[in-house]
Amino acid sequence: MELDLTWLLWGLPIAFALGWIASRLDLKQWRIAGRQAPRAYFRGLNHLLNEQQDQAIDAFIEAVQSDPDTAELHFALGNLFRRRGDYDRAVRVHEHLLARSDIGRKDRDRAQHALALDFLKAGLLDRAETALAKLEGSDFEGEALLALLSIYERSRDWPQARRIAEKLDQAQPGSFVGRLAHYLCEEAELAQRAGNSLQAFKLLDEAVTRVPSLARGWLAISALRTQVGDLAGAYTALEKLNQHAPQALPLAARHLVELARKLGKEADAIRMLEAAHARAPSLDVSEALASLGADDRSRRQRFLSHLAQEPSLVMATRWLEGETLSDPTAQAHVKNALEAACGPLQRYRCAACGFEARQHFWQCPGCQAWDSYPARRVEEL
């Protein structure tokens, strides 16, 4: 039986033709997909530039579907979800990136950092803390430490905040010693409330040793020593405050006067307060000096002395309180009007965000900045 090779003559050309057609179809599909993905990407970019986040998200989703292996598109999409407040979808995008085995170490760290930001924005502080801890040793370690510091401040976990601040102070070019000293003061307050005065003194001593110019530390030491009955130690702490942080003496003026009266050191306190007033006229210092006056006339003279150095509606009101108008009804109305006008002028104002408050804060309730409140009132700024 002879072998029929005729089918080979037909089969080979047909197989070649089918292979060529298939390759052309694949190339055409690849070109179409290649054109569609960049077009969707640039359309999304255009929406972003026009601040059209919803349309940009739709375009990037289309681009990701066309090219699911591109990490940059996933990062762009995840960031858009986060900016829009769609944190669940942002988390899913970044967790998908972390689950992939084909991305490099840098992209993996970047996805981990983005995931931590998602949790932070969503207010899931415990999950954010876990995600940030995994960035140790990465290029994002500095940013992760700063975010952890913010978390511990918000949760008022001062020992952990102190630990992170020490790391940042060693690693970062900026100094975090000031914040660290405030954390020590916060811990001291907690110890004081718990009745552990010895631990509170230890923490405060460490704070002023690290930062001698920390006004808060000296004020806290003075208050604590007053509480335990050590008036001489309390007065000494205020003397050190005047030595290391004289600009903060107005915050301690009233307490200084009270201690001076009990210890018989009125003359010494007057010298200290007058020196402070000569450096920078202060409402609190003037009122403290006036309270040390022998009689009403000397007190009112102190108010006039302040007005001679610096115009002040508050001091003018204090002086006018000693004047008697011919009409008693007018007297009460004028007094109420002046007190109402003086109220806002006696507040403290944050130098970082402008938040005003009746009391002095070491950390602004508005912007969370430390040491942003000057010791001077709004009228004096």
From TrEMBL:
Is Cell inner membrane among this UniProt entry's keywords? yes
Q: Which residues lie on this side of the membrane: Cytoplasmic?
A: 24-381
- UniProt KW DNA repair keyword: no
Q: What InterPro entries does this protein map onto?
A: CellSynth/LPSAsmb/PSIAsmb, LapB, Rubredoxin_2, TPR-like_helical_dom_sf, TPR_rpt
Give the transmembrane region(s). 6-25
Q: What job does the chain carry out? A: Modulates cellular lipopolysaccharide (LPS) levels by regulating LpxC, which is involved in lipid A biosynthesis. May act by modulating the proteolytic activity of FtsH towards LpxC. May also coordinate assembly of proteins involved in LPS synthesis at the plasma membrane.
Q: Mainly localized where?
A: membrane
Report the residue ranges that make up the LapB rubredoxin metal binding domain in this protein: 348-372
Q: Which UniProt keywords apply?
A: Cell inner membrane, Cell membrane, Iron, Membrane, Metal-binding, Repeat, TPR repeat, Transmembrane, Transmembrane helix
Q: Where does Fe cation bind?
A: 350, 353, 364, 367
Membrane topology designation: Single-pass membrane protein
Q: What is this protein called?
A: Lipopolysaccharide assembly protein B
> Where does this polypeptide localize?
Cell inner membrane
Similarity comment: family membership = Belongs to the LapB family.
